[in-house]
Amino acid sequence: MFSTVLQDLRFALRQLRKTPGFATTAVLTLALGIGANAAIFTLVNALMMKNLPVVDPQRLVKLGDRNVCCVGFGFHDDGDYALFSTATYEYLKKNAPEFEELAAIQAGYLYRPVVVRRGDSQESARSVMGEFVSGNYFRTFGLQPRAGRLFADADDVQGAPFVAVMSYETWKNNYAGDPSVVGSTFFVNTKPVTIAGIAPEGFYGDRLSSAPPDFYLPIESMPPLANVEYVHDPNGNWLYMIGRLKPGVSQVQLQAKLSGLLRQALATTHTFSAKDRQPALARAHLVLTPGGAGMQQMQEQYASHLKLLMWSSGLVLLIACANIANLLLARGMSRKSEMSVRTALGAMRYRIIRQLLTESLLLAGLGGLAGLAVAYAGTKMLLALAFPEATSLPIHASPSPQVIAFACGLSLLTGILFGVAPAWIAAQAEPVEALRSGTRTTGGATLLQRSLVVLQAALSLVLLVGAGLFSQSLSKLQHTDLKLESTNRYIVHFNPQAAGYSQRQVGDLYRSIEEQFHAIPGVEKVGIGSYTPMEDDNNGWDVHVEGKEYKPGSVSSIRTSAEYFDSVGTRVLMGRGIAVQDTPTSAAVAVVNESFVKKYFAPGETPIGHYFGSGENSPHDYEIVGVVQDTVYTDVRWKDHSMYFLPLLQRPASAKDPIETDEGLYVGAFVLQAAHPINDMEALARRTLSSINPNLAIVKFQTFDQQIADQFTDDRMLARLTMLFGLLALLLATLGLYGVSSYAVARRTSEIGIRMALGAERAKVTAMIMRGAGLQAALGLAIGLPIALLCVRFVETQLYEIKRVDTAVLLASILTLALAASMAAFIPARRAATIDPAKALRTE
Is 0.85 surpassed by the pTM of this model? Predict the structure, then answer.
């Protein structure tokens, strides 16, 4: 058997060498189809199917079934908790012996970077990712250090010496794996911290992220290092929890027990102390979910996109396979004489089928290997599109064993499915056919071949319409009037809290920033704010307008300087904006946007002079002094976004907590408006901040245009990839139609010669061939059109303000496919019209 297989394989290789054009076309077609699918599967495997690189991930469970972020107060109406306070974590850990370990993890570390500088070097302070975790964090995952040691419980108690664990990637990339890093002192947020050890290689934290942690720090070191108060506030929820179950524990029973413990812990807090909060307390519960993959924010973000791309790439593969089937059918028909001779010489039909299947499997295998190369390049492109600014993304373009297995399995399946029918047809050749002197025929392409072309045309139309819809959606997003001015604007993100500034010191810092940056030639405005438009950040609170019905619901809040509105291009519509005279000692004021006015005031009612406050019981905190237009923050899709703007340093009269606990006084960005482009603005900004304080590191620097463009990254990726798949499908369908038309012309050479010998005009011969190809394309359009109209219902959630197929998109897709079909048919038709009747009649 083995020698026979080798013989079949050698014969298959000889046959492919004899027909390099056929072999090359088939391999490239399969490479594109398999490569596109393997590239998408690489992302699917890395994002959706991989567990954390930890010990026995199947025994890990996550407390909560939602990915909420980052620091929350109050309660959930539905009672579903996934974010917890430190006190709740300690209570559950103490009273749930079903866990071998229960770890707590900072939910929003991505929004709170730390500033780090090595103590024994001259390196500048850098803003990096630092995650605060419980002392048993690494033990819960069953990890061992790459060097030094990991955390112990004693590291995570109040008053313990400050220690940190550095990630392996940071150790290798930034410090070249220097052993002396372990035990050395780093300044984290200006405080000396000892590096206890290096995390194991390949460990990227408790969640897949484009910015994994560079440093891990104990939770109890967070108040002094990050200067935050909510760590020990029983009403402040800021932690995720993940635990390792003991063997034999029932998750159903444990979930019920933990929900009861959760209610007991919440009952002692101020949030649930009032009698009217008892129904909300009774609804409080948590849901246990698999924790082997860790926290899954990124998985949730990209799940629908990846499903769409898998469907699209699957359709491309189907079109490619239809092309291969057509090629194999045509090749099988052309080899009928060969098969007749082999049959006449005694070859069994199953032997012929096996030989032809060996050839198709060899083709599929070669296509799969080439597809891996396409997959590698395609994955690199996908990662660049999806994560354009990621520097430490734990997803690699190199094919993993799973991806290789996927590509090989896909190749094998393709070879079998689309090689059986052509092999069976070719093997039906009768021995008597070999004795016939001619092969003159009036037959064209078979029904199966024409049906495959129709299928290709239909699927191509679906992909073209999809590409048009996502391109239209992206265009709508990018051309939305954001009510902003981005020309010659620069966004500088910084972290005064990490630089060691207290709440009483930030006022002097903000004034220094305004003065120093105004001194840069060309800078006209310096607008300071908690955050800026079109970035992934938002602070929200309940609002009660004095004299109005209380309407629960989060309203976004931003602290801003006097030049902020001018710097981002927001126009004041009524009253005034934030002014220089709005100081900590003056009356507390606020500026609201149009959506705020629509939500809380009757039509025509003037909001100027009214008061409101944060929360139901303090409606006299701020006086409304102005109304600004609705500019877009966070996301274009966020409609009716109510907002209010406060002076940088003002606190409401009802504030009872000391100023040292008010984190709202810390802002995160400032906008520089320049009179003209300044090419070295980033370097100037770094030098200017460093001159104010060496610990003031830039967290992120972008032009305003770049920041806006970043919010369309996902939509841009979908639009480009669906367009790529649509064009690829169109190319393959065009090649398929060209191949079938060429084959039909070759088969009908004698017939066409007779027609022309009897007086048929060249134009009519051309029209005859074009008509056959046009009919196949028309049938494909007829089948694909209703499918395309139906499919829009499944993707409308990923489109912006598009609920149906636009007529222009539909017409453009139909015309594109019709034009491609005409071009594919014209070349064989022209060739048919130039046939010499005398030569055609001699064709054997």
Answer: no
Q: What is the pLDDT of residue 438?
A: 46
Among 63, 59, 84, CA closest to 288: 63
Instruction: Enter the tokens of residue 91.
Output: 């209570």
By DSSP bridging, strand 130-133 and strand 215-218 are: parallel
CB atoms within 10 A of CB 819: 12
Cα distance between residue 530 and residue 557, in whole Å: 9
CB atoms within 10 A of CB 68: 16
Q: What are phi and psi of 454, to 5 degrees?
A: -60, -45
Angstrom distance (rounded) from CA 169 to CA 187: 19
Strands 130-133 and 185-188: unpaired
Q: Residue 270 class from Cβ within 10 Å (0-12 exposed, 13-18 middle, 19+ buried)?
A: exposed
**Could you give the 3-state DSSP secondary structure of residue 235?**
coil
Q: Is 458 exposed, middle or buried (0-12, 13-18, 19+ CB in 10 A)?
A: buried
DSSP-assigned states of every residue in 513-560: HHHHHHTSTTEEEEEEESS-TTSS---EEEEEETTS----SEEEEEEE
748: which residues sit within 8 A by CB, 6+ positions away? 441, 442, 443, 444, 832
Neighbours of 409 (CB within 10 A): 11
Ordered mean pLDDT values, 10 residues apiece, the chain (844 residues): 71 76 79 87 84 93 89 82 94 95 93 90 87 96 96 94 96 94 94 96 91 95 90 92 94 94 92 83 93 86 87 88 77 64 68 74 84 88 82 77 82 74 62 53 63 87 92 92 94 92 93 96 95 89 87 88 95 95 93 94 93 80 95 90 95 82 90 95 94 91 94 90 90 81 69 73 78 85 90 86 88 91 81 70 57
Contact 840, 756 (CB under 8 A): yes
Q: Are strands 554-560 and 611-614 parallel, antiparallel or unpaired?
A: unpaired
Taking the CA atoms of residue 200, residue 205, residue 209 and residue 211 in that order, the dihedral angle to the nearest 10 degrees is: -70
Q: Is residue 493 classed as helix, strand or coil in its secondary structure?
A: strand
User: How confident is the model over 356-369, as pLDDT tens digits?
Assistant: 778 778 888 888 88
Q: Are strands 60-63 and 185-188 parallel, antiparallel or unpaired?
A: unpaired
Per-residue pLDDT of 809-819, as tens digits, reads 999 999 999 89
Tokens of 85: 């306070």
Q: Are 578 and 592 in contact (CB under 8 A)?
A: no
Strand partners, 370: none
Q: Which amino acid belongs to residue 338?
A: E
Q: Which two tokens stand for residue 703?
A: 């032009």
Structure tokens at 56: 């026995």
Pairing verdict, β 589-593 and 540-545: unpaired
Kindly list the distances between the CA atom of residue 523 and the CA atoms of 90, 455, 835, in Å, as whole numbers in the listed order: 51, 60, 74
Q: Is-contact 34 323, C-beta < 8 A?
A: no
The alpha carbon of residue 206 and the mean position of all alpha carbons in its chain are separated, in whole angstroms, by 18
| CA dist list (Å): 345 to 60, 342, 438 | 66, 5, 20
Using the CB atoms, write b or e for 485-523: b if 16+ within 10 Å: bbebbbbbbbbbbbbbbebeebeebbebbbebbeebeeb
**To 5 degrees, how large is the angle CA 110–CA 115–CA 118?**
130
